[in-house]
Structures are given as C-alpha cells and as structure tokens.
Amino acid sequence: MTAERVTAERDGHNGRDGGGSDGSAADGEPGAGLRARLGVSRDAFTLDAGLAVAPGTVVAVVGPNGAGKSTALRCLAGLTRLRTGRIELRGTVLDDPSTGAFIPPAQRSVGVMFQDYRLFPRLSVLDNVAFGLRARGMRQRPAADVAAGWLERVGLGGYADARPETLSGGQAQRVALARALAPRPELLLLDEPFAALDAESRLDLRDDLADHLSSYPGCTVLVTHDPNDALALASRIAVIDGGRVVDEGPTADVVASPRSRFVARLVGTNLVTGQVVGGVAHFGDLRVPAPACADGPVLGTVAPAALQLGITGPDDPPGLSDPPGLNSGTGDVSTGLGALATDRGAPAAGRNGPAAGAGGVCRTDQVRRVVLHPGFVRVHLAGEPALMADVPIHRSLALAPGTPVRVTMPPGAMVVYPDDAGRRPS
Amino acid sequence: MVPPALLAVAFLVLPLAGLLANVPWTDISAQLRTPDVRNALYLSLICPIGATLLSIALGVPLAWLLARGRFPGRGLVRGLVTLPMVLPPVVGGVALLYAFGRGGLVGRWGYREFGISLPYTTFGVMVASAFVSMPFLILTVEAGIVQTGVRFEEAAETLGAGRLMVLRRITLPMLSPSLMAGATLCWARALGELGATLTFAGNLSGTTQTTPLAVFIALQTKPQDAVVLSLVLFVVSLAVLLVLRGRRMVGHQ
Q1: ipTM of the shown complex
Q2: Burial class, A136, CB count within 10 angstroms (exposed 0-12 / middle 13-18 / buried 19+)
C-alpha cells in the first residue's frame, strides 16, 4: 500500500468497485450461482455467515483458525447439516432446516478439494479422478477417458497408473483438483489448497489454479488464510471471524481498506478504530483531519512504512500529543527523527522530518517489540492505539523495547473511512 | 545390557531347539496318520476357523460401534469385551459353563426350548475359542477403523458415491489390512486355546480334542505324538508370524 493510493480521505461510499452481490445474500438474481446463509452451532461455537457467489467467480473465505471457515465449507458440501439458514445453488435448495429440505452430499453437484487432498490410497491416480464419474453412473471406459483428459489438463498425463502415495504434494494437489472438477460440479469448494505445500511450489501452483479456475463456469468458494491466495484467485473476499462475516467485498477493496484486525494483520497494515467529531477523527490520542467523514465510528489504516520514527531527544516533553492539522511536528522531527525516518515504500510521504509538513501528526511513544523482516525492521509501539512502524535495518540499531520514540504520521498517510460493520456498498 | 539380552534370546529360542532336537524325523508321516493325531489336527483346522468366523460376524459390528458410535458407557463396553484377553482361560471356561451349559443362564433356556446343549460339542469348542480370541479381532479392527477415519468416506460422498459404493470401494478396502490382521491374531489365539476349551468342551477325541489338548494328553502316554503335534503347531505359528511380518501388520521393521 503506497501513500499515493491512500492519500485521499474517503468516506467509504466513494471509489469502491462495484460487482457481485452483498454478503447478506439478499440480492442477485434468483437461480444464479450460490446463495447461502449458514447457521451451525456446536458446543460453544456458532457460525452464522452469509455467502453469495456468482457463476464463474471465486469468493475467498478468509479468517483466523477456528473462525468457522471449514465448517462453512462442510455445510456447503453437505457433510455438516445446517441448524438454521439456507443453501441454494442455481435455484435448487440444498439445505433448509425450516422446511426440512436436505440434499445429501452424494446428490449435490459440488466438488470438494480437501486441505489434505484425501486421494484414495488404494486406487490409482486415474481411478481417483474417474471416481466421481463412475459414482454418477458413467461406464468404466468413457470415465477412464474423461479422467485421462483431466490428468492431461493438469499436466499429469503420465501418472495415470501411479499410486497417490508416490506423488509429490503439488502433484497430489493437482490430482485432487482434477478429481473434484471431473464430474463438472456447479460448485467447487477449495479448502486451503496450498496449506500442505512448501512455499516454493505454492507460487507456481497458485498460477496454475488461477488458470483452471478462469475456465471453470461454476461457482467457487476458496477457504484460505493467505491473502495472496485471495488476491490471485478471488474476485471477492468474505472475512469470517468468530463465526460471523465481519467484512465482505471486492478483493482489492477489502485488502486496501480492511475492516477487521485479521485482514489488517494479514496485509501488514495498521488498523485503528475511532470516532469522527466535527471533521476530525479521534483514534485514542491521535487526531487526524477527516473533513469528508460524517460524525460517527470510523476506521483508519496507515501503512507501517508511512510512519516515521525518531528517538526523542531530552528536550521533548514526554506524552506530547500534537493537535491535528498543525505544523508542530516539523521542528522535533528534524532534530531526531530524520536519522530514523523510514524510507521504505512510501516515497510520497517523504523520507525526512520536514516532509511531515502541514497536516502531519506526531506523538511520543515507546518501543514494545522489534521484529526483523527481510529488508526492514517492524517496530511495534506500546502506545494506544497500538501502531507498527517500519524502519530500515541499518537505522534500527538504537531501538529496543522501552526506547522512547517520536512517531510522525505524514499528512494523508492515514485513510479514514466509516466503520459500517462489515457492509461494503456494491 | 548385552549379556542379559543374549540370555533372553537364548531363553526364548532354546526350548524351540529342544523341541526340534527331539522330533522323530523319520517317523513323522506315520505319526501324523494315527487316528488320534488326525482327529486332533482336523479339529484344529476347523475349530479356529469357526471361532474366527464367529468373531468376525459379531466382532466387526462391535468394533465399528466402538470406533464410530457415540453412546454412553462406550469405554465400559470396550473394557468388558476385552476382559477375556487377561482373564485366565480356565475361568473363562467355567464362566461359559454357567452361561451356556445346560444349567447355565442362557443354556438352560436353550436346552429346554430347543434341546441345544453346547458343552462337549465341536461347536462348543468354537464358542470357547471365540470367547478368548474375539477381543483380539475387536481391538485390531477398532484401531483400524479409528485410524482410517471418515476422511476418505467423506471424499467419496462428495464425489457422488452412495452408501453401497462407499462401503465397497472405500470402507472395506481401507479396512482389509486391519481385518486381516485381526482375523489372523484371532485365529492364532484360537488355535492355541486350551484352558477354556478343556473346561467348557472337555477332551473327547474326535469331537472336542483339539491339537493342544492332544499334545497335553499325549505327553503323558505317547511323548512322540506330542512332539510331532507340537512341531505342526510350531510350523503353523511360524508361518503366521511370517505372513503377518510380510504384510507389515505387526511391529516395526
């Protein structure tokens, strides 16, 4: 996220891509694609999530472990029955506890690629891919021909007679994809398709999967914890946390202006919650001008690379919080901050103190934790709201937990938008 | 560590050497053809098989429920049905007598209504053997079912497979190694059964006198018969071990 992209303050109702239907699954033409409201409760866990997928598109379901992603997938596959809600695929009701309608997994037009692939160990690769066709009544010979065609498509034409245990992780993944797609399901469910793979093969296989999905006419639901999967494969993202959809929208929007701490952490940005009063957003002791925002709850994001850190000199009174829109940061910054100012990824925000310029916000803070990343150091700060700032490695030597620092946020570095509880306008 | 370990090997292997050293190799075929020996071998062929089939018929469904079922007292049931593994076989025989004997809990009713009496019959031998050997099958198959899990069955379901196809193409093939291992262990245990069989079914040549019983009796009268029959059991046991090892069902290589 560069400063150019986030300079403009947005009110949350402008500048968003359209497309797709709302997370509540309330709209969209009847009979098209997947429309689901998934309600399950087990022990202390409750899932209540709406999901809508248009034909030919991919929706990524992301969220922390235990958020209910896999349960949602099991409901769609029919392996777990709904307690409340409804699943409708191309006009056919698959599950509706209120009417008792339930179509068992074997009779659903749904293909599942499991996280652990679950290739049948006692069947050959070809028989694995042909299994769904045989199960749906195709005769042995034509099923084998179709399966061989699919193996060809995923680049494993020579592996028809191989046993699943002899395959590499990436090959097994492609067989699992071929097996799920061979019966031409109307809904494809992908559960963490890359979780079992090493980082190297992940990149290539992600590209391959994107190719296959682009020619797949049905609906796809992709469960993942990796935002890169979502970016590469999905046109929309639904963020599930604690069994609820906390954010939903076009992938680029959700990533650019996250509404959940989960996504903010994934994309490595600072997310703060606050209130707008009279054109000024209050985030704890941070005050940021937000003239376009109506009064009410807001979210703010700022890239760690856009923040500038300086070691506070002895002259700086501790706890100083500068009023919004004032220039007062400049002088302090030039005394100590310049040496530590970040120069990674935020050219428009300026590298040195003076660039903080008009509208910049300063506060004194304390280092809580220093984490080394390839090429830079991420400094976690102790203040409230908690912020992270990135600093070049060679300038981070003076920083240790407890070090007092001055944080400067250049004008326009923070994007402020209304906190409307996960609803993104389409 | 090494001297006691060597001693242990010697302790376990020497008796077998002693047995082999006393085999009347030249007379074996003649010995094996005496009526008592042939009867004993015949009973030791059919009774363990009968006990194993009985164990499969009743034990596999129980193993399934123990592995997959969710009912109160599951642990208690598992403990109770595996008790015969540690129970002295003689106690098992006495218990069987007072359950299935003519005066027993169930046997009384069976004898009165149908004139069925189990003790001192060949089927009684199978019942006594099954009593002590079925737990081996149950535990092995249950472990196999638990280990296999429902993962592959679920995958097959999502691919459109109905119950029958899941059972035929997925469940049974996945289960066959543990079923084979369980059945073999069960059969081997039934083959060597002595205590419960003797107590419940007696020692009638041609009806209930299996090979281990014949060995036990022959040792006092015709030691040569005992040695030859022991050799047969020894060879069979060795073969079972090799089969199990070959299939990598027991132990770690």
Answers
A1: 0.72
A2: middle
